[in-house]
Amino acid sequence: MFGAGSARAKIVLVGEQPGDREDREGAPFVGPAGVLLNRALEEAGVDRKATYVTNAVKHFKFEPRGKRRIHKKPSEREIAACHPWLEKEMQIIRPRLIVALGATAARAVFGRATAIEHNRGRVIPAAQAQTEWEADILVTVHPSFLLRMPAADKPQGFRKFVADLRLARAYLA
Question: Best exposed site among 73, 98, 103, 118 by fewest CB in 10 Å?
């Protein structure tokens, strides 16, 4: 599954992989994580229609459990196999800022494992990021991470996620 959004987007949001609902509907970020992403973007003042959303891995990797399909983390090999498509999307869109949503997205964008919390809360200039693209990078959590947090931690986790997205908006202003 390829990304969706504005071909002139200045911000590209990169997630991990399609989920069950995304796989069934053929569009990125339409499931529970997408609903949360939309809410956070709205609170941050970022128009999702002005962004491009995609995933590092283009297929839904899952494990069947009864009638359900349970998400499985993609392997390094799968990230590498899907990289040419992500690269092509970046060449076409040519964003000013790439927002890596979670560890798999950061791995795909940087070409190596990248600590999320260590790199969060700041825009990393393209030259410093040493990626193959000319876009600067913002690293944050994946919205599904927020869905899995203990209930007591969710409000603060969401506020921090919105703050990251506000940083993206302010950076481009």
Answer: 118
Query: Tokens standing for 115?
Result: 């600590």
Could you tell me how many residues make up the chain? 173
DSSP code for 67 = T
Four-CA torsion 8, 104, 58, 162, nearest 10 degrees: -40
DSSP assignment of 77-131, as one string?
HHHHHHHHHHHHHHHHH--SEEEEESHHHHHHHHSS---HHHHBTSEEPHHHHT-
List domains and CATH numbers for the chain.
Answer: 4-172 (3.40.470.10)
Position of tokens 């947090």? Answer: 149
Is it the case that residue 173 has pLDDT exceeding 90? no
- The CA-CA-CA angle for residues 2, 100, 64, to 5°, reads 55
User: Can you tell me the distance from the alpha carbon of 41 to that of 154, in angstroms, rounded to the nearest whole number?
Assistant: 16
User: Tens of pLDDT along 82-106?
Assistant: 999 999 999 999 999 999 999 999 9
- Reduced to 3 states, what is the DSSP secondary structure of residue 152? helix
